[in-house]
Design goal:
Bound molecules: zinc ion
Number of helices: 9
Distance between the termini: 64 Å
Largest sheet: 9 strands, parallel
Helix content: 40-55%
CATH topology: TIM Barrel
Oligomer: single chain
CATH architecture: Alpha-Beta Barrel
Length: 281
């Protein structure tokens, strides 16, 4: 009789606990990054995002009149900064590209020079994504040069997804560089606030399904509408416990394949170095 009571009480408590655990912890790991492209100029939306307290990732086009200043302001506002590297598209006007863009006619040396100059021009950058670039992202020679510099400088790479034949994921994996690919654009040049809101709700759905998602929006002609659309939909993310994080939190890496890299240094600290077995190679 008494045993039955104990078992029943134990089961009740266990049931009660499992009822609470899912709502408290289950969705904690669903995360989205919202990258806002085309910073660097005096355009709509820039100030809103710099002041807005939304943890977006700020992608700054190098060599524009306010590139360096806006990168510093974004960093000071606690936002993650990346370089929005202009790259030649298959179609479109050359004037959309901005200064010192990566074009397919450039020599290896000139590409290196332009990427290094962009890193100098956009302080605090943690990564690189492409502005346009449908032609360049399919070019293994050029992407390899850009990724070599990214690796040297410890920068991650985001494939903005302007071409389905991009070699960025393949080369990033091969060269062991943290990378991610855009899941959804939340606006285009003439987007209304309603359109941004609709895309944000799709972003939320992707995050619920895949556990993580990366969106790209823009400052520019309708940058203020992009900001308002994001701001209006934020409560639904809070309600669903989907967290907005910097893009660096959502990268694919090869680190998991090499756990030795992680535990060894810590063990080394704890152990007497003289008695610790020497590495096998
Ligand atoms: Zn862009």
């Amino acid at each position: 009789m008494q045993l039955r009571f104990v078992v029943r009480t134990f089961l009740s408590i266990a049931l009660l606990l499992t009822a609470f655990i899912p709502t408290s912890f289950a969705n904690e790991n669903e995360q989205v990054a919202i990258i806002i492209d085309d910073f660097g100029g005096d355009v709509r939306g820039v100030q809103s995002f710099l002041d807005g307290n939304i943890p977006v990732t700020v992608a700054v086009m190098p060599f524009m009149e306010q590139s360096t200043e806006q990168a510093k302001l974004a960093h000071n506002a606690g936002l993650e900064v990346i370089i929005h590297m202009p790259m030649e598209p298959k179609k479109g006007k050359a004037s959309w590209l901005g200064p010192n863009a990566i074009t397919s006619d450039l020599s290896d040396k000139e590409i290196q020079k332009r990427v290094l100059a962009a890193i100098e021009n956009v302080p605090f950058a943690k990564g690189i994504n492409n502005h346009m670039g449908s032609k360049i992202v399919e070019d293994e020679r050029i992407i390899r040069i850009i990724l070599e510099i990214a690796k040297q400088k410890g920068l991650y790479i985001i494939d903005s997804g302007t071409s389905s034949s991009s070699v960025i994921p393949k080369l990033a994996k091969e060269m062991d560089i943290p990378y991610a690919t855009r899941d959804i654009f939340i606006d285009d040049t003439h987007s209304s606030k309603a359109h941004v809101m609709k895309q944000m709700s799709s972003l939320l759905k992707i995050a619920k399904t895949n556990k993580k998602a990366i969106a790209i929006g823009h400052v520019g002609i309708n940058g203020h509408k992009t900001f308002e659309g994001i701001l209006t939909t934020l409560p639904s993310f809070t309600k669903e416990r989907v967290k907005i994080v910097p893009a660096s939190h959502l990268l694919e890496t090869n680190i998991e394949k090499d756990p030795m890299h992680f535990w060894q240094p810590k063990e080394m600290e704890d152990e007497d170095e003289n008695t610790y077995p020497a590495p096998s190679k």
